[in-house]
């Protein structure tokens, strides 16, 4: 018995950076028994007419009544098609980035401006584990964050403080802490 669910009807997608470009593809769902995650990656199949470099590390928006957003990661060639691993962008959060390139006008010394850069970004957020770390008076949960927009260590995304960042297959993958009591 094949537990793989495949939607064989094509959907229209548009690139978030270039909405005039329309791409057709369909999702291959992972078997439920293999990945019990509430937000598993999905395989998106598109025709070989699409340049894979356009999609890698991009965000696709489905052209449906209720649009869904997907972050596009690695790809592989399968016969006449490309398969991309995608993650649903499940949260729109505010990115705060610390700037260190400003100088004090009087002393001409570098000055820190705490989190002045603000930008709204779509990300995929998933819980690492249900346990909490930190002291009893300040419990912290750990999360994974994926983004098509560059994120750096010490960025504050919503209430998540970014600890480690790696660029993997076109997407930025970060481990972040969330203060439970805030």
Can you describe this structure in just a few lines?
The N and C termini lie far apart (47 Å). A six-stranded antiparallel β-barrel has the order 2-3-4-7-6-5. The chain has a six-stranded antiparallel beta barrel with strand order 8-9-10-13-12-11. The model is unreliable at 1-7 (pLDDT under 50).
Return residue spans where pLDDT drops below 50 for at least 5 consecutive residues. Answer: 1-7
- The general outline is globular
Strand order of the largest sheet: 2-3-4-7-6-5
What count of helical segments does DSSP give? 1
Q: Sketch the major β-sheet.
A: 6 strands, antiparallel, barrel
- Which class best fits the helix and strand makeup? mainly beta
Helix content: under 10%
Beta-strand share of residues: over 45%
SSE sequence, one letter per element: EEEEHEEEEEEEEE
How many domains? 2
Which value, in Å, is the CA radius of gyration?
Answer: 19 Å
> Count the strands?
13
Alpha carbon gap, first and last residue: 47 Å
Average pLDDT works out at: 80
């Amino acid at each position: 018995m094949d537990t793989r669910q495949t939607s064989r009807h094509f959907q229209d997608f548009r690139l978030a950076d270039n909405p005039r470009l329309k791409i057709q593809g369909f999702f291959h769902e992972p078997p439920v028994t293999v990945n019990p995650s509430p937000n598993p990656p999905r395989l998106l199949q598109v025709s070989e007419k699409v340049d894979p470099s356009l999609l890698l590390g991009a965000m696709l928006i489905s052209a449906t009544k209720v649009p869904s957003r997907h972050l596009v990661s690695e790809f592989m060639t399968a016969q006449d098609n490309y398969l991309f691993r995608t993650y649903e962008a499940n949260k729109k959060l505010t990115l705060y980035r610390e700037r260190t390139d400003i100088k004090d006008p009087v002393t001409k010394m570098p000055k820190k401006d705490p989190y002045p850069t603000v930008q709204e970004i779509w990300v995929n957020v998933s819980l690492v584990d249900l346990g909490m770390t930190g002291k009893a008076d300040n419990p912290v949960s750990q999360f994974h964050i994926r983004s098509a927009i560059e994120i750096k260590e010490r960025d504050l995304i919503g209430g998540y403080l970014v600890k480690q960042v790696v660029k993997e297959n076109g997407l930025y993958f970060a481990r972040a802490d969330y203060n439970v009591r805030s």
